[in-house]
Amino acid sequence: MKKKKLSMLLLTMTLSALSLTGCGSGAGQTASQPSSTAASAEPTSSEPSETEPPSPETVPAKTKSPDGGQTALNTMYLPDAAEDAGIYVEPIPDISDNFIRGMDVSSILVEEKSGVKYYSADGTEQDVFTTMAEAGVNYARIRVWNDPYDENGNGYGGGNNDLSTAIELGKRATDNGMKVCIDFHYSDFWADPSKQMCPKAWVDMSLDEKSDALYEYTKDSLTQLLNNGVDVCMVQVGNETNNGMAGETQIPNVAKLMSAGSKAIREVSESHGKEIKVALHYTNAEDYDKINSILYKLSSFQVDYDIFALSYYPYWHGSFENIKNVMKNIQDKYGKETLIAETAYCYTTEDTDGSGNSVSEGDLIDAYGATIQSQSTALRDVCATANEAGALGVFYWEGAWITVGDVNADNSSIWEEFGSGWASSYASEYDPEDAGKYYGGCSWDNQALFGADGKPLESLNTYKWLKYGTNAEPAIDMINMPTVTCNIGSDVKMPETVDVVYNNRSLNAPMPVEWYEEMVLNIDTSKPGTHVITGRILDENASSDTPTEVICTVNVERLNYVSNPSFEDTDTSMWTVTYEGDKNPTDFQQKEGDAHTGEYSFHFWSESDMDFSIEQEFTNLEPGTYELKAYFQGGDIDDSAEMELYAKVGDTASSDPFTAQGYANWQVPTVSSITVTDGTLTIGAHIKCGAKGWGTIDDFTLNKID
To answer: With a threshold of 0.85, does the pTM exceed it?
Structure first.
């Protein structure tokens, strides 16, 4: 028995030595961008910390990696020229072969236990890690929860990602030439901005005890991973830790825990003679200032780390330009490396497992549809942005988390038994407010890079094709379907063109469209209603005789011609406010309780007497008869006040007076039979009242009634 243990020790030492190659710093960057093995140089921000941390001036300088800042990643499956494909990938010529083309693989083991089978590109059943490696994936990310089980050993779900699961997944990734990033949540279940729950075993610990426990847990777990041959080259200390970690929410406490985790990683790295990057992970990258504030505080508390990693989902986290600026700031101002730790996009809005999706039709952004092509283009664009910013690379989140069981069946028993849903009912004791109420299946299946049948989508190959792109015949990816609003009693004006988005975005163009005449003639504009009209694109270059059909939604309604009628838009330049005296008693107030609808209204109050008007002018109205309305509430105004809603056509004015009837007792002054002949009209409200009178005006409407 001892001999067997000795043999295993020799084997794991050999594997550990072999895995040394290629764990240097700076993947995807040039040699002039060294890694940091200590806290960053002095930040320029003057923001104070929450307690009295050490001054950033005491932070040690960065040291350069002996490998010149490059990480050797698996390039076996990367092509050396553009390949023919069914989807188009625009090349990124300057992207490095060492750019991290990563995949979060945390759910794969429970998927397979639930009966899921994965296939190669040619439809042959094979190890999903092999399929991903063949598609260019060179790095695997694996989450780890401390104890994702109830007292009876029932798994919380979401992959049941304990250490033993991470070891098994990590070995398979390593066997397929991938580096491994371990994502310690320091929780027994999901950790994200909405919750950072303490592991059950640490609940009653003091901060010092918790810090020691986290250090020991990290050191022991990482040692076990390495001794089992897992090629760990990066470790996350926490997951999306914007609002805390391991039950701690105060910055000094979180910094102490992070430092304990980092210390453990550094020690294991040194004892194994293997460079392992320390990463911290945050989200909400759309808020540049908030991320900068976090960076400053980490520097102030001298937290030792190499990589500031970000979640970036295009439908949630702002523009590419902003995320690029955020990543540049991380590197230029704080001297840290950066990467996208999580991203994804959907290939369909259909639910494939009977459990709702996290992303649906309403989450789509204009640049991408819910197609395999758009999914690939979105991933390519995230990678291009990260590359341009000098980031290490990108991890796609849970690209193999697909439906289990029969697509049309109730699969809850499988989710419960194997943990392949996002949460099981057994998680209720630990997370009663979220998992306890909403446990169920996978909400990510429509964003996977595999279909519900386990076969890889062509978008899985995006990583492989980043450098040289693909050769693909031009094809329509999506069409931005138009919507037309028509005033009651008016003629419908159908759009002459529609915006067509191609697989190669450089071909995007408006295309002429022919609407089916009979459907247009059947639109009833005499009353409110919604009509869906079909047409066909007139494409002289179409390769098929079958026309590409499009739809247009026509809404027949009373049009409101007032611009920014409820003051919800920040641009209020279309409104003119005039007043008597030195001080303007009015403002565009954000206070939902004082607005008729929305959050904003036109508000007034003053300690002095008030005399003011608010107006909007029109110059291109259709001739006809119009009606004007507005909503008013107010109080502390006596009967001598002059208040009216008015409309002026040339020298002719019509008005409707109103009175203040108290809070939320909305009055609706109305001016009818406004005749417009030359397209010009001025509308407004005038109020003259005593000091300390108050009120709000909201929701102006101007309708053409004849």
So the answer is: no
